[in-house]
Amino acid sequence: MVEDIPAVGGASPNSLVATEDYVFVSNGNNDCVSVIDVQQDTVVQNIRLQPDERLGNLRGIIPFGLALSPDQQRLYVAEAGINAVGVIDVASQEVLGHLPVGWFPSKLAVSPDGRQLIVANAKGYGSGPNGGSTFNLGEEGSYIGALMKGSITVLDIPSDEQLVETTRQVMENNFDFQQASAIARERQDHPIPAYPGEKESPIKHIIFVSKENRTYDEVFGQLEGGRGEAALARYGRNRTFSNEASTRTIEGATVMPNHLALAERFAISDNFYVDADHSADGHRWLVNTYPNEWVETHVAAAYGGKRRSVAGSEAPGNYGIVGSSGAIYPEDYNEAGSIWDHMDRNDIDFYNFGFGVELANSYADSTLKYFGVRPLINYPIPGPLYDRTSRAYATYNMGIPDQFRADTFIEEFEEKWGEGGLPSVLTIILPNDHGAGDRPNAGYPFRESYMADNDLALGRLVEFLSNTPYWKNMVIVVTEDDSQDGVDHVDAHRSLLMVISPYAKKNYIGHQHYSFGSIFKTFWHILGIPYLNHYDFGATDLADLFTTEPDTLAYKALPVNPLVFDPQQALDPFDEQFDWKAVLESPQLDDPTDFQAAADARDQKKSRP
Question: How far apart are the first and last CA of the chain?
Fold first, then answer.
């Protein structure tokens, strides 16, 4: 358990090796290796893997594979969370140091002569770009899942003396202590405090909005001052597109006018990268848990479709039991929990609209307008989340317009907090920029219609919130759970990050490197509470996107092009006279096969003369 707080996550034992005297077990959620004495048949020690005392009790190492040297004097641990291998002296059961390797090391072995270490890195070098003028389309296509390939690191095992330098390199790769100290010294009277508790922020209310599956380029690629490629901005300005049957075409449309207007009024980043590859792991990152080895292995199985057998023939893959659902499960709940436990533990009041309650094995169609899904299995969810979640707000379900979600949010907001008492944090999902097939009878004649629906809903939320008394002390942070359905010329993981606030810089595109940890680090600084794990501790916060000179002018939402999306027609299906047949026959959602087919179609269209 984490010292001083009740543990909420399990150990997640995953690998083991044995000598004549001991069995060693790696615990993915507890950042330790348990030592079982064979004679005593009991755990005699838990070897902590924390590489630096400045990290305190924060977790994030994710120990996975184990290997023993041939002489059984050294134990090597794949530390998936910090892209390293831990070196343990078997006799003393002490950590001697750490070795830098590739992304998400998973399994490893020692050469028979004991001189080399061979490490399998599950994510290798990442994805790289998956579109743009300099991207060369290979046989794997442009889908992020197909571009993520593993790597093998082969290194000479260093001497114990050399481990001092390799450990320093591991720490430098993951954490910038020197920069953090400099920021703490230099930041004065800023709306984002340097560290929790050092001073009070003028921002009292955080609104965290999650959307679905978009890259930076496809929405903001045309913006001046940003590192974008305009040709990839399929949801930007002056776009021409057709429906699936190519029977109807729109020319010169602006698909997401509110996103563009908000970007030009407030602050965004062109150097933000989602840590996730898909929705399944993305929804873990969105609530400040990091996917452990259980999630990372089953996600690949779930999204892999078919895998090759040993003989090379096609064989069905093993699907992950949680699919792409937006919730955390008992098998992967981090030791210290998620944002829900963290805020509850630190007496931060919050309320949730749709986050973290979309569980697997659920039934979903457009008739479930008030909750989005109907769970068929009674999975446990965190008590603080259950107690503070809207019972009227629809979770992920493409058959339900984001306009309905906006209506529900505004109605419940006015009912609960119209007279005061707004919580410190609200979490909201607006998922319809995920996209789905054409549904003209339901107001979605194009795939772009879903983007327009999402755009208008975001604009309406900002307009509503900026006209409340809370606006003068508010920040709205908008991001995506992943970027898997888009293309980007910088990296397939680059996505949207928007900061909307009286304290946001105006018409500003920030270039500092950001990740999901950056978002939560900023939240904890504003709220004056500690960090939750290695990832928010090591990230750069969003202070560069803020100013000390507030502008409290309210925002006015822009209308969408009615030829692209008709909000009223999208809401009409909730009338009793609507024929649900077309909705029920819509394609399965969040299916990687559909995503790959869409990517292939884009690639073929791009390759035409």
Answer: 61
Residues 53-62 pLDDT 10s: 889 999 999 9
Q: Which two tokens stand for residue 408?
A: 């529900």
Rounded to whole angstroms, the Cα distance separating 373 from 267 reads 34
C-alpha–C-alpha distance, residues 485 and 439, integer Å: 19
Pairing of strands 425-429, 94-100: unpaired
pTM (2 d.p.)? 0.92
CA neighbours closer than 13 Å in the CB half-sphere of residue 46? 13
pLDDT at 516 over 60: yes
Which token pair is 537?
Answer: 């501790």
Residue for token pair 């397939």? 492
Residue 380 has which token pair?
């446990």
Angle subtended by helix axes 448-466 and 257-265, to nearest 10: 40
CA distance linking residue 85 with residue 186, whole number of Å: 35
Same domain, 35 and 109: yes
**Total count of domains within the chain:** 2
Q: How far apart are CA 155 and CA 101, in angstroms?
A: 9
Among 130, 153, 175, identify where a domain stops: 175
Tell me the CATH number at 562.
3.40.720.10
pLDDT, tens digit, 9 for 90 and up, residues 542-570: 999 999 999 999 999 999 999 999 999 88
Asked if residue 165 and residue 192 are part of one domain, the reply reads no
Provide the pLDDT for residue 580: 47
Based on the domain organization, do 276 and 408 belong to the same domain? yes
Q: Which phi and psi (to 5°) does residue 227 adopt?
A: -85, 80
Task: State CA 241 to chain mean position distance.
Answer: 29
Contact between 88 and 47 (Cβ < 8 Å): yes
